[in-house]
């Protein structure tokens, strides 16, 4: 599991470092609680930024290679709306 988490973080970091977004997004999240449930998430940010970023992460070579290496079952983009006045946040949920 530790290797899976490290490789997940490396795949997301490789996308971030190789993209025009050189900031804090996307963020790889694989907490102990998520690992017990067999999930991980990638936070892509809010509004149009996150909406644009999520499909690019999904198609990135490092992420696709990670999914193949660890036989990932499902990958889906989720939209999280925390409050009516806030812009939605986009995240990618991975199930393994």
Helix-strand topology string: HEHEHHEE
- Helix proportion range: 40-55%
By CATH, the topology is Alpha-Beta Plaits
Tell me which CATH architecture applies here: 2-Layer Sandwich
Extended strand count: 4
* Domain count: 1
Beta-strand content bin: 25-35%
- Distance between the terminal alpha carbons, to the nearest Å? 11 Å
Strand order of the largest sheet: 1-2-4-3
Task: Write down the CATH class.
Answer: Alpha Beta
Largest pleated sheet: 4 strands, antiparallel
Low-pLDDT stretches: none
**How would you describe the shape?**
globular
Oligomerization status of the protein chains:
single chain
Instruction: Tell me the structural class.
Output: alpha+beta
List the defining traits of the structure above.
four-stranded antiparallel sheet; 4 strands; 47% helix; Alpha-Beta Plaits; 96 residues; alpha+beta; globular
């Amino acid at each position: 599991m530790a290797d899976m988490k490290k490789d997940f973080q490396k795949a997301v970091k490789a996308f971030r470092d190789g993209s025009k977004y050189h900031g804090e997004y996307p963020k790889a999240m694989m907490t102990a609680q998520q690992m017990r449930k067999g999930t991980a998430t990638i936070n892509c940010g809010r509004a149009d930024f996150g909406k644009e970023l999520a499909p690019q992460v999904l198609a990135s070579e490092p992420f696709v290679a990670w999914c193949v290496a660890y036989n990932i079952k499902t990958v889906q983009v989720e939209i999280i709306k925390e409050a009516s006045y806030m812009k939605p946040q986009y995240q990618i949920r991975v199930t393994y």
